[in-house]
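Lecture 7 notes: from sequence to structure.

We start with a single chain of 462 residues. Read the sequence below before looking at the structure.
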Amino acid sequence: MAKANDKDDTVAKTTSKKGASKKSSAGMTAKKKAAAKSKTAKPEPKAKKKVGKKPAAAAEPKPEPKAKKKAGKKAAVAAEPKPEPKAKKAGKKAAVAEAKPEPKAKKKAGKKAAVAAEAKPEPKKKAGKKPAAAAEPKAKKKAGKPKAEPKPSKKTANKKTANKKTANKKTANKKTANKKTARKAKAGKAAKSTLAERVDKHLLYQYSVQSPEADIEFFVDRYHELRGKDPVVLREDFCGTSLISTTWAALGDDRRAVGVDLDTATLEWARKHNLGKLDPEARARIDLRQANVLDGGGERSDVTCAMNFSYGVFKTRAELRRYLEVAFEQLADDGVFVTELYGGTEAIVQVTDEREVEDPTETIGDFTYVWEQASYNPITHETLCHIHFVLPDGSKLERAFTYDWRLWSIPELRELLYEVGFSSVRVYWEATDEDGDGTGEYYATEKEDNQESWLVYIIAAK
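Now the structure, written as tokens:
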């Protein structure tokens, strides 16, 4: 580092000397030129012919170097000054007798400095200022242009500035007020948003359609009847929000669950809102898998369920058979498969059914669940259905869920289950009360009268 500093000092000294040398040589050159001119100078009868020609002078003093730097290299004169007849542009130097010609004066045509007598030059403080030695008429800014208008008085200028500031302030205040109004309108709009715009449709679905505790109780009872023991591992195909898997793990310290679904967003919702409520130990006993139910995978189960008619997405016999084969393979040797099926005279027509649902959390309020069968094709048995919700504030969540299914019959499903290897397939019909409404209790049966609407469980055992 010391060497670098030494090198920098040396360079600096060298540079300083070079600079001083340049200044010295420039001064000597100026003196030589001035001396040469003083020896050879002759009277010039016509001083105005060319700018830069020197008029004759009686005596010529030694030029002042400082004046040359600031005033443009003027030569001093001894004679009395004579007023300059005309200066075409303010800020231009007047030419004087015996002065060294101004090289910059030639840059603009018509700029000639005429003098009648020799005058002692007076150095100017700043370039562009008029010399004080000669009386000079007020220079015009541009030749041929009318005289400039006088500047307004300070009071008038101040008044205009004040008016301008007031106008700007009013404009700024108006813009600020408009922004505040826009923000208030936006906030008001947000405050007036409807329940349908804010509500979580997955919660509404769970409150309206699912009863995980009742389903699990039914699974355990049927499995115990068949196997004489309680199931431990549950597989939930088409699990969606995984409410059944979550409830299963929460109801027993030894219970494990496997949930399978294709939809990423729904599984993420399940992890946050359902699994997130469990303690870490229970959560660790649930294996959520984003996968196709046709691919299988995961621990073999004691009970596999496919609830809410989700297998209806398989619209051909071959597709449904393939799914049931996978379900059979994923079961333990004494496993049981459970699913649901709906039907009745109203299941194959366009119809809309409404019922009131209580909000168990009392955060939303009681709302209306709407089931719409929009279309049915009797040739293919394809049906298109929607779920809507009507909220307490009167707002509607239209088509919260849409299902494009094939409506399978009980005989078709039973036949396929037997084909893939199940040893027994039982149908559990829902009991009704005096008014014909379902009671939530199911019993095994082989013959029933048709109804407008019915719902059954199907239990298939290996």
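Confidence is low (pLDDT under 50) at residues 1-146. Keep this in mind for problem set 3.
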